[in-house]
Structure prediction request, 500 residues.
Amino acid sequence: MSAVSEPQETPGTVGFLTFFALPFTGVGLYTGYRLLVEFGSGSGDTERLMLLAVFCLVFGGAGVGMIWGDRYGRIRQAREESLKRLHPDEPWRWNPDWADGRIRGGNRALMFVVWGLALIWNLLSAPMLTQLPAEFAQGNYGALFGLLFPLAGIGLLTWAVRATLRYRRFGSSEFRMDTIPGSIGGTLAGRIETGMKSQPDGTVTLKLTSVHRHQSKGRNNNTSEKILWQDEYRLTGADLQHGPTGLVLPVEFEIPDDCRATAELAPGRRDLWRLEASAELTGVDFHTQFEIPVFVTEESASTDANWPAESRFVRRERDEFDPADSPVLVRSGPAGGIEFIFPAGRNKNVALALTVFFLIFGGATAGLTWWLVASDMPIVFRLFTATFPLVFGLVTLLIFFFTLDAWFATSRVVVADGVLWTRRSLFGGGKRREIAVKDIAGIKLGIGMSQNQTATQSGKAYYDIEIHPTIGKRFKAGQGIPSKREAEWLAAKMRRLLEV
Prediction:
């Protein structure tokens, strides 16, 4: 590959972000100056000194961080533009890490980011703790809601400590690609060099996910993700090898030809691919992830010819799903044929999460309503403030229905006498839908609901079994299946019954 000269910034150019950061930096410097002056003069106003320290650290840190980020971003953009000119038809080469096929995990960066968030949040919320006792003494118990901010700070600190312990124990893993890039309609192959020194008691889970990410701009910045495709498999101790830094995890995924490639679609919209590895261990669990390149290519290049061919991981046949692991009951129907019964509450983790959200939003609605009724504010302000418990109440009602569905909804699919019919019911009843077997074009899997990636859990797809008629709209014969292997097993069983 041709050498890429170090990109240079245009002399005298300053990014917009730097101009935006100057007021923050100025406030930070001024409050720092006032803090030194008042502290040096022996000021006994501890609360004022604390506020000055918070303003100095928060505003000054934000300003310096934005200036550094602006400069780094412009250098990175210049480097990317140089690579684009050199490799206009190979977008995976625009990222130096992708081009070399050596992608580092994000554990180290995550540790610093979380510590930054935790420190800023706790600095901002600390003065609130000095105000709450006085509010309670005056009978303003609505100020209890102010405790939510310090509690959130404790949560952030806990997250930061765990991220630090994980980094100290495992370091930063590295994914070395044998195929550059991963190929749509082909494979993604390579190995993850980890810092795990000993084999876990259980298995190591490898997961590959295609995600569409949408980052909205404006008054309410929001980032949402939709899982487009996902696959995973587990490694046992016999599959693991020892490398220079620890255990080596062999990676090989087959990528269907109807998946989307890595792409920047529009401002704030992009399709990306994420590779994750995780294992449950005593103490801190192992987890690492990588954003990887997956494109439409004619061939994939080897990254390391010295990696012994006999050491390459040859993926076993896909593990057969054990029907005993499925909560779905498959049996002979009372009137003949075969029926599939999807029982209520089979996804307990989802149901419990919805219940927690319902209690949180329900408690917030009740608290806001009580505060509004007990408040002596003028009627005009009451009418304006009433929108908050109203919005929270509507969200609570929506979550309540989802919670009921997760705990109590059942589905039934029956194949008998040349007909397939389905019924989904909540506390009995439910609309029945049926179709003649001869009118079914096929049975496919689709991703229904999905669990977005958060600070404590990876993204997870739940699968629906879809009936595709020769004419008309497709409909579901079972939904919310948490395991892809289970969904494939159920769909294959239905296909055999229908012979489609």
